[in-house]
Amino acid sequence: MKSINCLLLSLIGLLMSVGLAAQPTPLKYRVYLKDKNYNKYSIDKPQEFLSARAIERRKRQHIAIDSTDLPVSPAYIETIVMTGGNVVTKGKWNNFVTVAVIDSIVAGQIGELPFVKKVELVWRQPPAHKPSETHKRDTLINAPAKSKSHYGVGEEQINMCNGNKLHEAGYKGQGMMIAVIDAGYHNMDRITAMQNVKVAGTKDFVKPDSDIYMENNHGLGVLSCMAMNAPGIMVGTAPEAEYLLLRSEDAYSEQLVEQDYWAAAVEFADSIGADLVNTSLGYYAFDDPLDNYRYKHLDGHFSLISRQASMVADKGMVMVCSAGNSGAGSWKKITPPGDAEHVLTVGAVEKSRLLAPFSSVGNTADGRVKPDVVAMGALTQVMGTDGNIRMANGTSFATPVICGLVACLWQALPDLTAKEVMEKVRHAGDRSDFPDNIYGYGIPDFWKAFNEKK
Q1: What are the boundaries of each domain within the chain?
Q2: What order of strands is seen across the sheet that includes strand 177-182?
Q3: Which residues contact 155 (CB under 8 A, 6 or more apart)?
């Protein structure tokens, strides 16, 4: 620690030369670190950085706590701050700190620190910030139509995967925690039909002091496919699970830094003890075209978000993510993190069970089958911000249909590991004998997956 203290002292003069009084357009950089030395945390005391629930989840699956679980070195963070970096977020699995700086000169000085591996620009101030339409509440009507069906309008999207039979057997997600990482959950806290959704907590990684219930509405629709529990109106695929509502997506720009927020969010979900992660987000084109991905990058490791996602199962969680909605466009392919390893990437089908034209296709650059499975994502029933059900299109909504049912299956088969659960779901697909790059393993039959346990 003496060498670090000396380094801190030597940087005091450097701080003065940086010229903090001048405040030009801020920039954000991802700072990759070489190691986690000078760390006050130890893998021998995981209770200092992981919840009891997270530790128990690892024990149940015989997963060892390792150096990737250790927080980023506080001593290194302190040094970066003294050099002129304002910490925005940090990620322990890939050992980085994201900082805001006043100019590229400061970023260069941070890059010269002896424990820094690489510095990468991930955000520039947009020339004109879009006005937020979600910072005011939508008008509530709260008068959804009712039907005689227990599932209400959600019946078809559940029955397609035989999820209703899991529910009838008593498996509705009770005891399971699902982290939803999205762009916002506008008006969810005021919608009458969603008041019995079990919310375990909320956290905004884009703007920590914001109200996620006044941000974008995309997460509201996603959440409703799983969490709704309003018989006769709509019942989701895991109505008795509890939910962590997390925000990582900045809907007002498309820049690499959103993957830094996502990385922090998934690590938070892990540390709290979530069992599953639903993320209906994907990235391949950015505000700066120089950042755009190419097909060769879809290897599960090129993008930060895919590297992080590829580690989720090794922490004992199941991650379910959207394939993307580029099937009818020029890109066509899945979008990161849909190319990650050991995740369930979900495409969308219509009521006819045929692929929705917009649903992105695989395979990955290294030849893995993607998407993994498909579910109803065309004219999917979701909750709207006015408190009424509406129809929406997107792999974003097929994803939570699957995620909720995976939670129910895992509740029924608690001795399985995360990777074993995902393999069961793939094996239960109606195309599992001949998977392809369009439907993957097909539409999974969750009742079949449950009964094949014996």
Answers
A1: 2-124, 155-451
A2: 198-204, 242-247, 177-182, 276-279, 318-322, 344-349, 373-376
A3: 149, 164
Adjacency order of strands within the sheet including 86-91 = 86-91, 96-101, 27-33, 116-124
Residue whose C-alpha is closest to residue 235's, from 184, 177, 173: 173
Of residues 241, 263, 259, the one with CA closest to residue 250: 259
Q: What is the pLDDT of residues 401-450, one digit of tens each?
A: 999 999 999 999 999 999 999 999 999 999 999 999 999 999 999 999 99
Q: How many CA atoms lie within 13 A of 440 on its CB side?
A: 35
Classify residue 200 as exposed, middle or buried by CB count within 10 Å of its CB (0-12, 13-18, 19+).
Answer: middle
User: Tokens for 353?
Assistant: 């069970």
Model pLDDT for residues 51-68, shown as the tens digit of each residue: 999 999 999 999 999 999
pTM beyond 0.85, yes or no: yes
CA distances from 254 to 135, 217, 248, 291 (A): 19, 17, 12, 10
- Both tokens of 259, joined, read 């993957």
Token representation of residue 184: 């916002």
Which residue is listed with tokens 């974008």? 216
Cβ count within 10 A of residue 358:
19
> Residue 17 above 60 pLDDT?
no
Phi/psi class of residue 60: alpha, beta or left (left: φ > 0; alpha: ψ in -120 to 50)? alpha
Q: Which CATH superfamily is domain 155-451 in?
A: Peptidase S8/S53 domain (3.40.50.200)
**C-alpha radius of gyration, the chain, whole number:** 22
- pLDDT over threshold 70, residue 270: yes
Using pLDDT thresholds of 50, 70 and 90, give the confidence band for residue 1. very low
